[in-house]
Amino acid sequence: MPRTGTEATTTTTSGCEADCGVPAMKATLMMMMSCRSRSQSGRAHWMLLLFCLLLAFPSHGPRAVEAFPGGYGINYGRIANNIPSPDKVVQLLRASKIRNVKIYDSDHSVLDAFKGSGLNLVIAIPNELVKDFAANESRSIDWLNENVQPYLPQTRIVGITVGNEVLGGQDTSLADPLVQAVKNVYNGLKKFHLQDKIELFTPHSEAVFATSYPPSACVFKEDVMVYMKPLLDFFQQIGSPFYVNAYPFLAYISDPEHIDINYALFKPNPGIVDPNTSLHYDNMFDAQIDAAYAALQAAGYRDMEVRVAETGWASSGDQTEAGASVENARTYNFNLRKRLFLRKGTPLKPKRPVKAYIFALFNENSKPGPSSERHYGLFNADGRIAYDIGYEGQLPSSAPSYFLSLRENV
């Protein structure tokens, strides 16, 4: 959100009000230089002038909402009939010291359970509501009035997602209304004075890209760019990051004969060198993020931050899903967690730490699709850990501990 300047509202011209009346820059600087040679009171006046100058010439760039402290978060999906109640989930998250959580709706039982927890929660407007929100700005007001305003500040709602993987998805009728739905939700946040407290974004799948190898060659698909450009223009205006769902697992199972599984799992491997940038990549996760950065830069959005809305590895799958195993899921999630806790960037953006939400908290037994969809959880339905990457479940685990051996072998 652009900052606005501070304007004097009275005719009195004494003290800071006189100095902050936005005089000519040259005159103000001359006054400041004059003050430097005076007594201590003169130096104090110089500091006052400096402060007022900052007010008179504010920054007008977008002010990003800090919705994601640290670099590690988790997706709390609930398409299951056997997972713990939300209050038990809060206990599990706090015990595991996971403080950034993203859900896929605005279920009130979850919002109630998160009250007073200190956990940061991102809630969602699902795809089936996108058209309605685009057509009726009042709908966003009603939704915020029902699902956000009554829970603040006890429940720390720090972000709202509008849809999930809309662009490049199968329902092409959602592409056109998406940007208007986002704008209407933002206008609703402004009415409640929450635009500087709640981050607004929409996650994208890898399907929005025409190519992603090498990373520097990545661009958005032409048919997607028609809808992506106005969306990115708006997000740039309000300071929102670009969120992508990055899955080395999905890339690997699509071409297991040509992709080194060690490269996908953060294990020792020769890596790749991008021929256009000479940057070396020793893992696919970083390459996928830099591919998103390259697409943004090619589209003219050089300063937009890339964050990961989903990433993970299935612990089981169909026979056609190569690499879906407990051992690989453990290795990927352990190495990913270690990588995120280092708070480092990517080869292309070394000074911008990566932030990612892991998919997912639980195995969700009611999810449709291939078997892998039901086996992404770090925890089993009863609260036990699915495999050991350093977390403790609600109950003693019956699974063998691999944590120490992983330290030596990954």
From TrEMBL:
Q: Which Gene3D superfamilies match?
A: Glycosidases (3.20.20.80)
Q: What biological process terms from GO does the record include?
A: carbohydrate metabolic process
Q: Which InterPro entries match?
A: GH (IPR017853), Glyco_hydro_17 (IPR000490), Glyco_hydro_17_plant (IPR044965)
| Residues that span the membrane, as ranges | none
- Give GO MF terms, alphabetically: glucan endo-1,3-beta-D-glucosidase activity
Name the UniProt key words of this record, in alphabetical order: Glycosidase, Hydrolase, Signal
The source's superkingdom equals Eukaryota
Q: What's the catalysed reaction? A: Hydrolysis of (1->3)-beta-D-glucosidic linkages in (1->3)-beta-D-glucans
EC number of the protein: 3.2.1.39
Query: What general EC class does the enzyme of this chain belong to?
Result: hydrolase
* UniProt family annotation: Belongs to the glycosyl hydrolase 17 family.
Q: What is this protein called?
A: glucan endo-1,3-beta-D-glucosidase
| Source organism per UniProt | Oryza meridionalis
